Structures are given as structure tokens and as C-alpha cells.
Amino acid sequence: MADAPQEETGRLDDAVADERNASLEAAASSSVASTPEEGAQKPQEMRTRPILTVADLQTSFFTDNGEVQAVDHLYFQLREGQSLGIVGESGSGKSVTCLSVLKLLPMPPARIVGGKVLYHGKLPGLPNAARETVDYPVAAETLETTPPGVDLVTLSEKGMRAIRGDRIAMIFQDPMTSLNPFLRVQTQLTEVLRLHRKMTKADARSRSQEMLKKVGIPDPDKVMETYPHQLSGGMRQRVMIAMALLCDPQLLIADEPTTALDVTIQAQILELIRELRDQFNTAVVMITHDLGVVAGIADHVLVMYAGRVMESAPCDEIFESPQHPYTLALLRSIPTLDSANRRLYAIPGLPPDLTRKPPGCPFAPRCEFAFDRCRAEFPPLRYPSPTHKVACWLEQAPTIEGGR
Ligand SMILES: Nc1ncnc2c1ncn2[C@@H]1O[C@H](COP(=O)(O)OP(=O)(O)OP(=O)(O)O)[C@@H](O)[C@H]1O
Ligand code: SF4
Ligand SMILES: [Mg+2]
To answer: Whole-model pTM?
Structure first.
């Protein structure tokens, strides 16, 4: 993928800087709210700005076995303060979606084949501006970026470095992905602030301590002096979250951040992410294969399968009126207390080989409701409500004998 021309890159980098200044000014003005009512109104107003719009994103890996279409015509939009859960089985393209947003994939073999990832982009021609999280069949070429919006797909690596870890931060399942085993925690945290915020050593140290405290580390002074391997898994995860949040990112992408942790720590980390979202109006993308985690944190849910969105809806609608057979199957696989004495449901079959996707609905080989058309043509979108979208040929939600 070619970088943007130099002149354009300069403009985009300036746009990012302008946008950051605007955010800082907005934060400063919000702090002068003189009455509790004024203060309370601010987050609501701020929630309306779209922060990330992914339009027709296609990411492939070019391997010896052929093109792996890991992300296939994906659309979603996320607004400030909103949290989006992305769920799906292993290999459905959840991580590749987020790594494409931050351009952290190894290129080659990966390549963003098409689409746009608009950071603060405005989209003329959006069919329903009221939709909180949209997914609309509009060709990416027709979508424009209005300054200070930036298309991350064409942004230079220099521009991406200014955004990563600053405006958009990511936390990984394995903290050692972002922590350096050879450097003390203090060095790793303060470097982020010195790089992105040009802070003095002393200021960076005190901000780092403050953030460690915020993520629930009881003795920040001591932890600052340690190397990552000297900390427990839960503490390392907290340090990584602290590092991700140092610059008050507008968007936090969390890729299975709690899977490796025990249940108590898992709950604490999720609570922490929720608090940070509410406190700083940070938008959150939470990737998980655990629908329980989604229920606890997401406002809106994308159900992914074979690189595509199968269903997209507000979180309560996904649980109360799931429409897509794949979503239903995922919900049926959740263990419940009353299922303790029953055999747990497992979705039959395996996800498709992404180098040889079936021509129609990718779920057809495993779907108990499939009919001929499903195997021939990819289904159109159906909207059961303005914020609920389903990619399925069925005209209404299927019913399952015996319920879920
Ligand atoms: N480096 C790579 N080379 C080739 N194919 C890859 C590579 N990385 C990922 N893929 C493929 O891309 C697809 C999507 O992978 P991705 O990691 O996004 O899945 P996921 O939904 O995050 O799964 P999990 O829940 O296991 O983390 C998979 O089929 C995977 O095999
Ligand atoms: S389109 Fe057909 S195969 Fe695909 S989920 Fe719907 S009913 Fe099943
Ligand atoms: Mg993954």
C-alpha cells in the first residue's frame, strides 16, 4: 500500500495536531462548567461525534496457499464514549480488523485491499445520520473525509505513529506484546509521554504514577522500578492498560484483554475499562469471543463470521431478539446454570477456509436454516430496527425448538 504523497501527509499530520488541540481545548472548556448541570450535559453532547468510521474495509493475507480474505467488506462506525463489542469464533477476523485500523499487520503478507478507515471522518451521503453504529452499503470511494478527519488507510507511517498510543491505543491479550521485557516499567511509561506529550522527565514520572494508581496498582513507586516479568499477570495487564491510557486516547481497542486472567481479575479489569470510558468519554472497541464480557461492557455489538458482519445491533437487542442464525448459535453455546446438567450446544462444523470462501452465505454449510439461495448468493442486509442490521436471507428471526 503506498504512503500518501508528502504534501498530503504533511496536511494530514497537521490535521491530527489541530484535532488534538481542539480536543484539549474542548477538555479545558468542559472543566470550567460552573454548575453540576452544565458539567453533566457535556458528556452527552460530546458523545455525538463519530470517532472512527470503517467503510468497506477489505484486508487479505497473500500466502503460498492463496489470498486469505480475513476482513471482507466491513462497515461500522463508532462515536465518542460509545463501546462496541466485536464477537465471533476464532479466525472470524476480529483481530485483523483492529490491527488493520492501526496498520499493525505485517505487510506483506497482509495488505489492505480496499476501503477506508476514517478517524474523525465526516461522511456525506450517510443514509441515516441518527444511526449510532452504522453499516451501510455505500461504496467507500464515495465517502469523503472532512478535515480534521484522516483516512488511516492512506496515512503515512509518520502520521500513524502520531496517532498510535496517543489518540488511539490498543491493549492486547498478552501484555508482553506491548511491554518490553528489558526495560523497567518506569522507562516504558515515561517514554510514551516524552514522545507524544514532550513532557519533562519529572512530569512524565508523576503522570505515570498517577495513571498506575488509577488502574488500581496500590504501590506505584515500587511497580515503576520493576521489570515486567517481576509482576503477576493481572498487574502486567494493568500496567499495559495504564500505558495505553497515559495520553487520554479517544479510542481504546482492547483485543481479548481478559482472556488469560482469572475471573476476579477479569471483572476488575472490565470495571476499570468501563470507568475510564465513563470518566474520559473514551470510545472502546472490545474484541472477545465471550458474550458475557460483551453484555457487561458493550453498547453495540458486531457479530463477525468469516471476515464479514453477520449481525450488528445494540447490545440488548442482540441478547433479547437475535436475528441471525449464527448469533443464535453463539448464544446457545453460552453455558448457563440451568444447562449444567445438559450437554452444552456446540455449533456443528468448522468456519470456512478463507482462501476458498463459499459463493453465498459463508455460514450456509453450518446453518440449520440454509436453503438453496443461501448457497448461491451473499444475503442482502435486513434492518429489523434502524440500529439493527442482519445479513441473512431469512425474512425474520428463526425460532429454535425448545428455545435457546
Ligand atoms: N499472518 C497471517 N497469515 C495468514 N493468515 C493470517 C495471518 N494472520 C491471521 N490470518 C488469518 O486471518 C483470519 C482472521 O484472523 P484473526 O486473527 O483476525 O481472527 P480472530 O477473530 O481474532 O480469532 P481469535 O479469536 O482466535 O483471536 C484467520 O483465518 C487467520 O488464519
Ligand atoms: S443466509 Fe441462509 S445460510 Fe446464511 S445464516 Fe441466513 S439462513 Fe443461514
Ligand atoms: Mg484475535
So the answer is: 0.82
CA atoms in the 13 A half-sphere facing the CB of 24: 10
Q: Ligand 1 centre from 263 Cα, in Å?
A: 26
Ligand nearest the Cα atom of residue 61: 1
d(CA 317, CA 332): 16
pLDDT for residue 204 = 92
354 CB-near residues (< 8 Å, 6+ apart): 68, 69, 70, 91, 306, 307
Q: 78 has which bridge partners?
A: 52
d(CA 225, CA 68): 44
pLDDT at 42: 37
Q: Please, are residues 174 and 227 in contact by the beta-carbon 8 Å criterion?
A: no
Q: Please name the residue whose Cα sits nearest to atom 6 of ligand 1.
A: 61
Of the candidates 270, 261, 229, 223, the residue with the CA atom closest to the CA atom of residue 243: 223
Provide the pLDDT confidence category of residue 13 given band limits of 50, 70 and 90: very low
Strand order in the sheet with 50-63: 66-79, 50-63, 110-119, 150-151
Ligand 3 center from residue 214 Cα (angstroms) = 27
Average pLDDT on 24-34 reads 32
Give the mutation target among 361, 371, 381 for probing the ligand 2 site: most ligand atoms within 8 A of CB.
361
CA distance 248 to 299: 21
Tell me which of 31-35, 38-42, 319-323, 379-383 is least confident. Answer: 31-35
pLDDT at position 267 over 50: yes
**Residue 401: predicted pLDDT:** 63
Which residues line the pocket of ligand 1, CB cutoff 6 A? Answer: 61, 63, 68, 70, 88, 90-96, 109, 289, 354
* 292 against 10, higher pLDDT: 292
